[in-house]
Amino acid sequence: MPPASDTWSNLGFAAGAISINLMVAAIGLRDPIGLAISWTAAAAAALIASICFFAHWSSNRGRKVTRVVIEERYEEGD
């Protein structure tokens, strides 16, 4: 089994950082069109970040190694 992948997680963090930067930049804008475009782009980046985090969780959820210990018990008379 291949090791767990961090690609989707890294893309999610990048999209989240872009979203936060766009929100901070939108605070200083006075132009209504620029403000609308900036907030729309920030919302789209936040949506992309959440999709990337879900893809990371979905692609790595079956990769955890689990160990099972089987104990055999015998009753007297068996």
Structure description:
The protein has two helices and no strands. It is mostly helical and 78 residues long. The radius of gyration is 23 Å and the shape is rod-shaped. The mean pLDDT is 86.
Structure at a glance:
The protein is an all-alpha fold and about 80 residues long. About 65% of the residues lie in helices and about 0% in strands.
According to DSSP, the number of beta strands is: 0
Largest sheet: none
Give the percentage of residues in beta strands. Answer: under 5%
Percent helix, as a range, is: 55-70%
Please describe the structure with a list of short key phrases separated by commas or semicolons.
78 residues, mainly alpha
What's the layout of helices and strands?
Blueprint: H1 7-27, H2 32-60
Helix pairs in contact: 1-2
